[in-house]
Specification:
The complex is a heterodimer of chains A (317) and B (420).
Chain A lengths: L7 H12 L10 H31 L2 E2 L2 H5 L4 E2 L3 H7 L2 H32 L6 H8 L1 H4 L2 H11 L6 H8 L13 H29 L3 H9 L4 H29 L3 H6 L11 H11 L3 H28 L1
Antiparallel strand pairs in A: 1-2
Helix pairs in contact in A: 2-15, 4-15, 5-10, 5-12, 8-10, 10-12, 12-15, 14-15
Chain B lengths: L9 H21 L3 H10 L5 E5 L6 H15 L3 E5 L2 H13 L6 E5 L3 H6 L7 H7 L7 H5 L2 E2 L2 E2 L2 E6 L1 E6 H6 L8 H10 L6 E4 L10 H9 L10 H15 L12 H9 L3 E7 L3 H7 L4 E4 L9 E2 L1 E7 L6 H10 L3 H11 L6 H4 L7 H9 L3 E2 L9 H16 L5 H16 L1
Parallel strand pairs in B: 1-2, 1-3, 8-9, 11-13
Antiparallel strand pairs in B: 3-12, 4-5, 6-12, 7-9, 7-10
Helix pairs in contact in B: 10-11, 18-19
Classes of the chains: A mainly alpha (317), B alpha/beta (420).
Protein name (chain A): Carbohydrate ABC transporter membrane protein 1, CUT1 family
GO cellular component, one term (chain A): plasma membrane
Keywords (chain A): Cell membrane, Membrane, Transmembrane, Transmembrane helix, Transport
Chain lengths: 317, 420
């Protein structure tokens, strides 16, 4: 059994420990203080843009905060009452269900599309770089643009999808994809997966290019088919990258608000009302700020757990 | 001097001082009132005004030209800021928190009570009393400015909903213009053929998509605080029937008022429920021969008020100058030049007496002002939540998620909770 050599950083760290056994806390030198000063702007930036809003949201969720008492500074502390109310709210459970269906379906579709594209681009052909750049467009387009494009494509009256399907005789009458319960969620899943697929492609392509070519050559000599190579070499060796794609995709998709808000605003009914849309409506339509903050905090739980798994996984890697 | 001091502690002092300065700067920036102080210094003394509005598209230029005209006449600089409708209230809330509201905010009439209750806009009763022109305003519009016995806004423009119809399509089908909701249903069915629809309306997610249903519900004699009664059921079943019989397009659930207008303009819809805002667009863009009829009646004849009010915010450092602007904008001459560009209706009787408002189509909309419904001050602060619940019920029924009674019962729960 072989043991992987320690990383250079680990060596340096362990050397330091060995070199200073049992010593007391080192006296702070001006050099160390200067180091703190160098990182101070970054720390302040993170504190101001990430930690403070997070703290503020959690804090607000513990108060009865309507527009009136929020602005007049007469917030009433209610402890966990907002959470109790939201956990008893069927709309929250529906939102959680819709969010999970939306997120998991999007990731599966994104992964299939991304992997197909990655395999396609993992070989040489004329115009490869140009085509790859074009296919990357959906990811760099502002969401407001891509969501509106999908809204038009799927429109029941003048949308491209209806035009094509009716032209080839698959549909006999127009379908209002975004106005029907059974198709609205599918439509936003498709639109989000289309946007995210280039991101998956990029990471998976990097993963594919890291797989030693010798493995494929050896498999070919052993008489394996392309499918067997894909099944027994490509997929197993892509697993670490696939895990990263899946986890980052989940965290990104679970918090998606803009695509859904632009395409369906959470409708029809509550068919596409994911938790972020519900939190927005509670906070900025109904102006129940404490309730909205409670939903936001609940919304944080699942991605936070997954983020911790991600950091653990990448640390091991 | 500290930084010039040499010796072993000089660098440390410099470092500690630097960290202290960074922290102090950051803390000062975060301190409540910091932005207010900056704003006051910037705004006090020069009399300049800031006006926030949500008039996008073709409405931006006329409104901002109106403000520019005020600057030309008075020399008072007015800086407008357009914030899209969907972001407007959120932006106001955020700015109110930071003490950074504009001098004048042009707000949705139904939100006036909400902002008054929250203390975001100021009581104008004293100014209105001295001014002495409140009796000129149509009752429905003026009522939206009232909260807790005081006046918190001045109506800017109004709009009502009517039934738009394609005369040619009705003649071809040999049908009369409907005057009741039963007739409207029958006419819509007669004018539909699977590709073209008899009646269209905006049913999009959110408050905007509730207007058509509310019109039908109010005509049945309903009270907005009690949606799950017989009037609500009659209205919901009527919309469900029109959907099932394909008298109306399933697309209504995804259409806002612009989309609805496009259908009528392109003659894929023979009738639509919409406001006067689209008169110029339809006149210019459509080849159809069209006309306007009052909203159909059932137990009563009613319409729906869509309006904006001019308000002065709590953060204005120039209340007198802001009031001067608001007062100037009420003059009939000024409004009669401005309103036609906006396709909006006058809010004052003296403005409405101008000859330009005698056109039959426009007059139909103006006459609806007398019966146009607006939420009272108890309902208004919660109107967005109530309208959204109603629209959710409509969508749930039309998309087959729920039956009418269940959807209305669910909506009633939301309304009861909202109204406490």
């Amino acid at each position: 059994m072989t043991t992987a050599p320690p990383l250079a950083t680990e060596l340096r760290a362990s050397d330091t420990v060995r070199a200073t056994p049992g010593r007391k806390r080192r006296k702070k030198s001006p050099r160390r203080l200067l180091n703190y000063l160098y990182v101070a702007p970054a720390v302040l930036f993170v504190a101001a843009t990430t930690l403070y809003p997070l703290y503020y949201n959690v804090s607000l969720s513990l108060y009865d905060a309507s527009l009136k008492n929020f602005l007049q500074g007469t917030l009433e502390f209610v402890g966990l009452a907002n959470y109790q109310e939201q956990l008893a709210n069927p709309a929250v459970w529906n939102g959680l269900g819709v969010s999970l269906i939306y997120t998991i379906s999007t990731i599966v579709l994104m992964f299939v599309l991304g992997l197909s594209l990655a395999v396609f681009f993992n070989r040489s052909f004329p115009g490869k770089h140009l085509l790859r750049a074009v296919l990357f467009l959906p990811y760099i387009l502002p969401t407001v643009v891509s969501a509106n494009i999908w809204r038009w494509i799927l429109d029941g009256s003048y949308g491209l999808v209806n035009y094509v399907l009716m032209s080839v005789g698959i549909l006999s009458e127009p379908v209002f994809w975004l106005g029907r319960t059974e198709t609205a969620l599918l439509s936003v899943i498709l639109a989000t997966a289309w946007t995210m697929a280039p991101f998956a492609m990029l990471l998976l392509l990097a993963g594919l290019q890291d797989i030693p070519k010798g493995l494929y050559e050896a498999a070919t000599l052993d008489g394996s088919s392309k499918w067997q190579e894909f099944r027994h070499i490509t997929l197993p060796l892509l697993r670490p990258v696939a895990l990263v794609v899946g986890l980052l995709g989940f965290i990104y998709t679970f918090r998606t608000f803009d695509t859904i808000f632009i395409m369906t605003r959470g409708g029809p009914g509550d068919a596409t009302t994911v938790l972020p849309v519900l939190a927005y409506n509670e906070g900025f339509v109904n102006f129940e700020l404490g309730q909205g903050a409670a939903i936001n905090t609940l919304l944080l739980v699942i991605p936070t757990v997954l983020a911790l798994i991600y950091f653990r996984a990448t640390k091991k890697e | 001097m500290l930084f010039m001091t040499s010796g072993p502690y000089a660098r440390r002092r410099a470092i500690v001082l630097s960290i202290g300065l960074i922290a102090a700067t950051a803390l000062t920036a975060c301190a409540p009132g910091a932005q207010n102080a900056g704003k006051s210094a910037e705004q006090n003394g020069d009399g300049a005004l800031t006006v926030w509005h949500y008039y996008g598209g073709g409405a931006t230029a006329p409104f901002e030209s109106l403000l520019a005209k005020y600057t030309d006449e008075t020399g008072v600089e007015v800086t407008p800021r357009l914030i899209p409708f969907g972001d407007f209230n959120r932006t106001l809330l955020q700015s109110a928190t930071a003490g950074d509201l504009p001098d004048v905010a042009l707000v949705n009439a139904f939100d006036t009570a909400l902002f008054a209750d929250a203390g975001m806009i100021i009581d104008l009763s004293e100014q209105v009393e001295k001014w002495g022109e409140k009796d000129q305003y149509f009752d429905g519009s003026w009522a939206t400015t009232q909260f807790d016995g005081a006046t918190y806004g001045i109506p800017h423009v109004a709009d009502t909903y009517s039934l738009w119809y394609n005369e040619t399509r009705l003649e071809e089908a040999n049908t009369e213009v409907p005057t009741t909701w039963d007739e409207t249903e029958a006419t819509a069915k007669a004018l539909s053929d699977g590709q073209n629809f008899g009646l269209v309306y905006a049913g999009i997610e959110g408050a905007e998509g509730s207007t058509a249903f509310i019109l039908r519900f109010l005509a049945a004699g309903g009270d907005i605080t009690k949606i799950d009664g017989p009037e609500g059921l009659a209205a919901m079943e009527s919309f469900a029937r029109m959907n099932d019989e394909k008298s109306t397009s399933p697309g209504v659930l995804t259409w806002n008022e612009d989309d609805t207008t496009l259908q009528f303009q392109n003659e894929t819809a023979a009738m639509m429920i919409n406001s006067a805002s689209y008169m110029t667009a339809v006149s210019e863009e459509s080849d159809a021969t069209w006309n306007i009829a009052p909203m159909p009646e059932d137990a009563v004849q009613t319409s729906f008020l869509s309006a904006e009010n001019l308000t002065i915010t709590k953060d204005s450092a120039n209340v007198d100058a802001a009031w001067d602007l608001v007062e100037w904008m009420q003059q009939p001459d000024v409004m009669n030049e401005y309103l036609p560009e906006r396709n909006k209706l006058p809010v004052r009787e003296d403005t409405a007496s101008d000859e330009q408002w005698s056109d039959a189509k426009v007059q139909t909309f103006i006459n609806q002002l007398d019966v146009a419904w607006a939420p009272d001050e108890k309902v208004a602060p919660k109107s967005a939540e109530i309208f959204t619940a109603i629209q959710n019920a409509l969508q749930a029924v039309l998309s087959g998620q729920s039956d009418p009674q269940t959807a209305l019962t669910d909506a009633q729960l939301v309304i009861d909770k909202a109204l406490g």
